[in-house]
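As a warm-up, study this chain.
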Amino acid sequence: MTEATEPEARPRVRRQPQQARSRARVEAILGAADRILSQEGYEALTMRRIAEEAGVPVGSIYQFLPDKGAVVDALGRRYLEAFGTAVDELVERALAGELTDLVGTMVDVCAELFRSQPGGMALWAGRHLSPELARADEASNALIAEGLRRIVEHLTGGSGGERARRATRMAVWAANAVLHEVFKGDGEPDLETVDELKRMLHCYWEDLRGRLTAEEG
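Now compare it with the structure written out below.
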C-alpha cells in the first residue's frame, strides 16, 4: 500500500489486543459483526447484537472498540487489506510478465472479493451513513486505481502521467459501480453482466493503450 493511499486516521480502537486470547476475542467480535452485516444489514449492527452473536459480554467489546463506528472502521480496514493484498499480487504478476489478460483478471479478482465478502457489501451499501465507511470506500478505490496505474504504465512502457491516473480511476469507478449492482442482492449474481463489464473495459483499455503508446513514441 502506498503512502498516498493509506487511510489518514489510525483505527479507532480503545486499546490494541496484546495477548493471544484478547486477539482471538477481537477476531470473534469482528467475525460476529461481519455475519450480522451479511445476514441482517447495517441497521442491525449494534453493540448489543454483536455481543449476542459473538457470545461475549457487551462490556468486553468496549474494552477494545468504543462504539459502532470503531467496529465499522475495523471491518472496513479488514476488507481494505484483502483488496490491498489482491492488488499487490496483480502488480507482481504484471511485473513478472504473467498477466496476459489485464482486464479479465482484474474484473475476476474484484468480483471474487465482492462475492466472498457479503458483510463488506452491506458496509459499502451503507457507506453514506458513516464517515468511517466513506473513508474506507475511498481508500479502497484509490488503492486499486494506484495498483492498476502501475500495471498500465509497465505494460505501455512509460509514465502515463495524468492521463493514466485519470483513466485508471475511471476504470475502477466503473467496475466498482457495476459489481455493486451485481452482488448487492441475496440471489445468484448476474455473471453475464460481469462479462459485459469486461467487454466494456477491454474496449477502454485498448483505446488507452493506443493513446499512451503513441505518446511515448
